[in-house]
Write a structure and sequence with these properties.
This protein is mostly helical. A three-stranded antiparallel sheet has the order 1-2-3, with no helix packed on it. Helix 2 crosses helix 4, helix 6 runs antiparallel to helix 8 and helix 6 packs across helix 10. It is globular and about 60 Å long. The model has no long low-confidence stretch (mean pLDDT about 90).
Length: about 290
């Protein structure tokens, strides 16, 4: 009952995205199942029970980043219960999140992306090939999130202003400029889509071969397949193109605040991770160029 109330709060008051709400609910349901063995209710949990759960997650090989997300879900949940006067002190006060090793975002270099997008054998000239190219070029050319691409509609594209309206996290809108070539590519794709005469005539920008709105796994599989032409990384997700977009802008002198706005980050701290990639690039240049390096 308490979890359902909290989920409604996230949906209608905090206006979190469906993916975020699903993640919160999954975490809380998992914790709720865990405390059954202690014959406890959610209101009776102490910090010792939470710590025991964290140890259990670690023993099962759950990644530190995932564990911290679950801890964050519990913090928000018990803060909500406090706000509703259902509990006094939160059991999360004495819970510390494990430290996450600082890993640089994986990016694909501009040179490799140029090779990919200029290649003649990667994208076909039919509807499917043009659509797959649009998927990759939109992610790399705008830095938008996978969920944002899935929810793009045809009327979000402003051809005359050469910009795209994106609905980001917490339903925050932002405008992203696009290049001449990307504007033309999207226009060509929309004509191709129209010529398919799909029965359902979806307003979604990116659709399947049957004309239905795409889903997250469809985009993920498409990007994974395309990036396999140029990348040997195990991870070839759409988010890598977002990282590559931000890193390219930073390497070319773009202001960090401008990159923050383009990415739709709520704080500058989330964007600053890309400065580390630029430092690594400077180190590489130094080692190559300096006679005493």
């Amino acid at each position: 009952m308490f979890i359902e109330r909290f989920i409604r709060y996230l949906q209608f008051e905090k206006r979190f995205s469906p993916n975020t709400v699903t993640a919160y609910k999954k975490d809380l349901d998992q914790f709720s199942q865990f405390i059954v063995s202690f014959q406890l209710e959610l209101l009776d949990v102490t910090h010792q029970h939470v710590r025991t759960w964290i140890v259990s997650l670690m023993d099962h090989g759950i990644e530190t980043r995932t564990i911290n997300r679950k801890i964050s879900s519990l913090r928000s949940f018990y803060k909500f219960l406090q706000r509703e006067d259902l509990i006094g002190n939160s059991p999360m006060i004495y819970v510390r999140a494990p430290k996450i090793p600082k890993l640089l975002p994986i990016v694909i270099t501009e040179q490799k992306m140029d090779i990919l997008l200029d290649a003649q054998n990667v994208f076909s000239n039919d509807f499917q090939g043009i659509r797959d190219r649009v998927i990759v070029e939109l992610l790399y050319g705008t830095g938008m999130r996978l969920s944002e691409l899935v929810n793009l509609s045809d009327h979000d594209i402003n051809v005359y202003e050469q910009q795209i309206k994106v609905l980001g996290k917490r339903n925050k809108e932002r405008i992203i400029p696009i290049s001449n070539s990307l504007t033309k590519l999207i226009g060509d794709y929309q004509l191709q889509k129209l010529s398919q005469n799909f029965e359902n005539n979806s307003s979604a920008l990116i659709v399947t071969n049957e004309g239905k709105k795409v889903y997250a796994k469809f985009i993920y599989r498409t990007v994974n397949l395309v990036l396999s032409f140029i990348s040997t990384y195990d991870k070839k997700s759409p988010h890598i193109l977002r990282h590559s977009f931000a890193t390219s802008l930073l390497n070319r002198g773009a202001d960090l605040n401008a990159i923050k706005e383009l990415l739709g980050h709520s704080s500058l701290a989330a964007t600053q991770v890309y400065t580390h990639n630029s430092v690594e690039k400077l180190k590489s240049i130094y080692k190559q160029a300096h006679p005493r390096a």
